[in-house]
Amino acid sequence: MGTTASQLRKDLLSEYQELTFLTKQEIILAHKRFSELLSKEDRNIPTPRVPMEKVLSLPELKSNPFRKRICHVFSTSDMKDGSLTFEDFLDLLSAFSDSATLEIKSHYAFRIFDFDDDGTLDGGDLEKLVNCLTGETDDTRLTTEEMRQLISNILEESDIDKDGTVNLSEFQHVISRSPDFVSSFKIVL
Amino acid sequence: MFFCWLTECQAFVEEFEGALGKGKGRKLYAYKVMMAKKMIKFNRDFDNFKTACIPWERKIKEVESHFGSSVASYFIFLRWMYGLNLVLFAFMFGLVVLPEVMMGLPYGSIPRKTVPRAEQDRAMDISVLLDFGGYCKYSILFYGFYNDERTIGVLQFRLPLSYLLVGVGIFGYSLMVVIRTMARNSDEGGDGGDDGQFTFAFKMFTSWDYLIGNPETADNKYASITTSFKESIVDEQENQKDENIHLRRFLRVLANFLILCSLGGSGFLIYFVVKRSQEFANLDQDDLSWFEKNEVEFVMSLLGLVCPPLFETIAELEEYHPRIALKWQLGRIFALFLGNLYTFLFALFDEVNAKLEKEKSIRNATIWGLNEYYSNYSSYHNTTDIPPPDIHPADVIRGPCWETAVGIEFVKLTVSDIQVTYMTILIGDFLRAMIVRFLNYCWCWDLEAGFPSYGEFDISGNVLGLIFNQGMIWMGAFYAPGLVGLNVLRLLTSMYYQCWAVMSCNVPHERVFKASKSNNFYMGLLLLVLFLSLLPVVYTIMTLPPSFDCGPFSGREQMYNVVMETIENDLPAFIGNIFTYATNPGLILPAVLLMVLAIYYLNATSKNYQNANLELKKKMQMARDEEKNRRNNKENTNQVMQDLEDLLPNRSLKSPKVAKRPGAAANGKGINIQKDVSLAAPNPKAAVTHPPGPRGPSGNARGPPPGPARGRGRGTPPSRR
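Predict the joint structure of the above. Result:
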C-alpha cells in the first residue's frame, strides 16, 4: 500500500518461520504492517523500534484492554517504554497465533496479567485486572464491596497453597481446565 | 540479541554437522540428515499452501472482529458444510450424472427420457418449469431419467450399480466426516467436566476475546463481563431461596403442555396440507392458484419462522437460568423441525403408496398390450423375429414413477426454504435496518435505542436451519441427483449474502458470548439428523419396489437386486460364495454380539480411566496440602508422616534442580510443578518462541540449562528474574 519498506530477506524469512508459530504469509503480512508503523527516518536503521503509541494504534490492539501490558511484556527495550522491534512484534504474533500451544499462551497470559511484574498475581494485580475488564466508565465498574468479594472468590478457587497470591503453576492449572482460553487468546492480523 | 545467538549456533551446527556421524556411516548419516531437513521444509511449505487455499478467511476474520467468535463460528460451520457438499457433489456428478450424460442415450430416444405427448405443449412454460414439471422433470435432475441398462458405453460403466452405491456412499462419507470432526473437536476442548469449579477464575482470566477489534463490540463486551461478574457474585451470595416452588413447577408444566400442544398442532397442520395437495394433484392444474400449488412448502417454512419466537415467549413462564433456557429452546426447535419433517415424510409415503397402486394397473395394461402386439405380429407375419413396436417414445403409456415425484417434492421444499430464508434476511434485517436508520429522523421515540432497533444475528436459529437443510438434502439426494448441486450453489451464495447482511444490518449481541463447547453440540445434532435422514432412504431402498418403467432400477423386484446381479454375473464365483456365507444369519448374529460386547468393554475401560483420573487429582491435592502444611506450620497433622520424613534423607529441602533458578525464591512457597509441564508441541515446526525472559543478567540464556534439555520446543520458559 504505498510504503516501499525494505523487503524481508529470504533467509530471515525462513529463520522466522522456524522460530515462530507463524506461516510465511503471516510473517510477510506482519512485516508489511510493521513497516507502515515506522516513521521515515527509522526505515533505514538496521533494527528499527516502534514506540508504544504507534503500536497501540493498530486496530487489532486498539480495543484491547490489556494493550499496554502486552506491549510491555513483549518489549525488549532497555528503557522499559514498551517499544517493539520487528522481532518483538513477531514474538507477539507468534504467542497469539493459532498454532501456539496452551503452555506458551498461559505463560504469556500470566505475564500480561501480572501488572507489577513480581512473578505472582496478588490482590492488587487482580483488582487492576478486573478494572481493565469492566471498562473505563464509572457505571460499569464494580463497587469496593463487590470487588473484595470477587477477589476472595477467585483466590479461593485458584490459590491452591493458600498464600494469597496466584503463581504461575496455579494459573496454568486453572487455564488448562478452561475450554475457551486457547480459542479466545488469539490475535490475527 | 536472541536471534544472533541462535544464528551463531546454527552456523556452528552446520559446520560440524557431518562430523557428528562417525565412521563408515558418515555419508549416509549426512544424507539422511539432509533428507530430513528437506522433508521438514516441504511439510512447512505444504502447510502454508493448505492455509492459503482455505477460502473466505478474510471475510470471516472481519466478521469475527466485529461480532466476536460466536457469530464467526456460524460462518466457519457454513464453510465446513460447503466443503462437505462439494465432495458429495463431486461423487454424484462424476459417478452418476456424467456417465449418463456422456455415455447414455440422449433425450427423446426412449420413453422415460421424453416428455409425454399430453404434456408437450406446455413443457416449456415458465410456471411449469418452476414447478419442476415439463422438461425439468425429464432431465438429469431427477431419478426417472436414468436408464436401467446394465452397462453403458465403451467403458462398460455399470450405471445402476454406481447409482445405488453412490446413494449409500453419500451417507457413509458424511458419517465419517462428521464423526471425525466431532472427535477432533472434543480433543481440543479439554475435559468437559469441572464446569462449576472455576467459574470466577474463568470469568476473570479467559472471558476477554482477543479477536475483537471494534470499539463498539469491545464496549458491549465490557458491559457483558460486568453483568456476568455481578450476576455470579449475587448468585454466590444468596442462599437457595425456593420461593413458592409449587407455583414454579405448575408454571413449568403449563409451559411444557402449551408447547406440546403447538408441536402437535403444527404436525397436524402439515399432514392436513399434504393431504389437500394430493387432492389438488388430481384436479386440473390450471384451476389452482400459485398458493394452492405450493401450499405444503409455504406452510412448512411459515411454521419454521413463527414457532421459535412463540416458544421463546412461552418459555418466559419457566424462569430458567439463561443457559438452561437456551438448551430447552434449542431442543424444542429441534423437535419442531423433526416433527414437521417426519410428518411430511409420512404424508409423502401415502402418496407413494397411492402411486404404486396406480402403477399396477398401468403396468398390467402395458404388458397385456405388448403381448397382444407380439401375438398379432407373429400370427400375421409368421416370423419369430419380432421387431419392437413402432411407437414414438412420447406416445408410450407411462407409469406414475413415484421416485421422481418424491424427488420433485424434496427439490421444491429446498427451493422454498431457500426463498424463505433469503426473504427473511431481506425483510427482517435489511428493511428493518433501513427503516430504523432513515425514519429515525422523523419519529417520536428513538428507534435505534428502543423498539425495534437493529437486529441481532440469530446464531442458533441459523445453525439449526443449516442442519435441517442438510438433512433434507441427504434425504432427497437419492431421488434427485441434481439436488446436491443445487445445495452447493445455495451455500455459496448464502456465504456472501449472509456475510454482507451481518456486516451491514446487524449489531453485536448485548451479551457477547463465546462459541466454545457448543461446537460439538451442533455436530451432535448434525449426526442425529444424518441418522434420521438415513432411515427413510434405506427403508425405501429395501422395501418399496422400484417403478417398472423409469429410473436405473426399473424392471427389478427390489432396488438392491442390482448388487446381487453384479455379484452373480460380473465377479468371480468364489466372491459370490463369500457373500452367501457372510449374509448367513449364523454369522451375522455372533458378529453383532461381538460388537455389543466390545462396546460394553470399551465403556467399562473408559469409566475406569475416569476413576483413575479422579484418584490422581485427589492425590495431587493431598500432596499439595501436605507441602503447605509442612512449610507453613512446622507441626504436621500426621505425626507418623513427620517421623518418616525425618528418617529419610533431606528430600524436601533439596527441591528439584529446576528450583535452583534465581527466580525460585520469589515463588518458592508455591509447589514448583513447572517441570511437569512440557512444551513438546505437536507442532511440526516445533520451535518455541522462547520468551526472552531474563533481561538483567544477559548471559543467563547461555547458563546451565536447568533440568530438561533446552532444545527447540522443549523445556520450560525461564522464570523472570
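The radius of gyration of chain A is 18 Å.
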